[in-house]
Automatic annotation (TrEMBL):
Residue stretches spanning the membrane: none
Domain AAA: 3-178
Pfam family, one: AAA_31
Stated name of the protein: ParA family protein
Signal peptide (UniProt feature, chain positions): none
Length: 265
């Protein structure tokens, strides 16, 4: 049965999509069966995996609004060994169309239930807002991964996110927990970074991943080639960091198996 993680933070540009795509690729590189769910109408995760969001026949919109089967909607990420449930701007309409539906918070959970035994990890790339789509992700997830940029305003807005997570937990998904807080675009030379790290550690303790994702230009370049960084420049600091994150997640899950590529090579 798959473990489902919602990768979320209502701030834009904090590394949600970069984390979703590259964690999916890294987990797939360890031979895990992975599904990446693009839940952002911008479709950046879809494109970043090398799938043309405007050319797909069906998308997550059809799954959420028209009850289309997930297994008939997923496409393979070229070269990367995982599956993608693609999104494009059609998804913008889903929020409005679901508004009057009974059980609208559970559409994604119900859809993923059909394929939960086909995968070991399902990662959901959330949109940059706390809207009905994000609530669908939180209702479907076992854990939340929160990417954070260690900058001055990093903690601003965090309480709104934590409140939403708690509300979802109380009302619709009692099993939901914070899987981890991930520091992204990390620059250890910046003293502010260390201050934010201290704050995060005080607040989240062991929920703070020890893996940090450095600022790395290869991570920013890879999406324009439609590739996870692992297949764009596997020696890059970004690639190694996401492999390390996959390793940390697998260890945390208490599952056997190491990352397939030795980061020291
Ligand atoms: P979000 O999905 O939270 O909006 P993205 O993952 O799209 O954020 O990242 C925002 C921008 O920052 C993108 O252009 C992305 O390529 C870049 N980026 C993300 N993580 C890194 C990193 N570790 N190093 C350098 N650039 C990064
Ligand atoms: Mg994004």
């Amino acid at each position: 049965m798959a473990t489902i993680y919602a990768i979320t933070n209502q701030k834009g540009g904090v590394g949600k999509t970069t984390t979703s795509v590259n964690l999916a690729a890294s987990l797939a590189a360890t031979k895990r069966r992975v599904l990446l769910v693009d839940l952002d109408p911008q479709g950046n995760a879809t494109m970043g995996c090398g799938v043309n969001k405007n050319a797909v026949e069906h998308s997550i919109y059809d799954v959420l609004v028209n009850s289309r089967a997930v297994s008939d909607t997923v496409v393979e990420a070229p070269e990367s060994g995982f599956m993608v449930l693609p999104a494009n701007q059609d998804l913008t309409a889903a929020e409005v169309e679901l508004l009057n539906e009974i059980g609208r918070e559970f559409r994604l959970r119900e859809a993923l239930a059909q394929v939960i035994d086909d995968y070991e990890y399902i990662l959901i790339d959330c949109p940059p807002s706390l809207n009905m789509l994000t609530v669908n992700a939180l209702a479907a997830a076992h854990g939340v991964v929160i990417p954070m940029q260690c900058e001055y305003y990093a903690l601003e807005g965090l309480s709104a996110l934590l409140n939403t997570i708690n509300r979802v937990k109380q009302l619709i998904n009692p099993e939901l927990k914070i899987e981890g807080i991930l520091r992204t675009m990390f620059d250890g030379r910046n003293s502010l970074t260390n201050q934010v790290t201290d704050d995060l550690r005080r607040h989240f303790g062991d929920d703070l991943y020890s893996t940090v994702i450095p600022r790395n230009v290869r991570l920013a370049e890879a999406p324009s080639h439609g590739l996870p960084v692992l297949y764009y420049d596997k020696q890059s600091k970004g690639a190694l960091a996401y492999l390390a994150l996959a390793g940390e997640i697998l260890r945390r899950a208490g599952k056997k198996g190491q990352v397939g590529i030795d980061p020291k090579n």
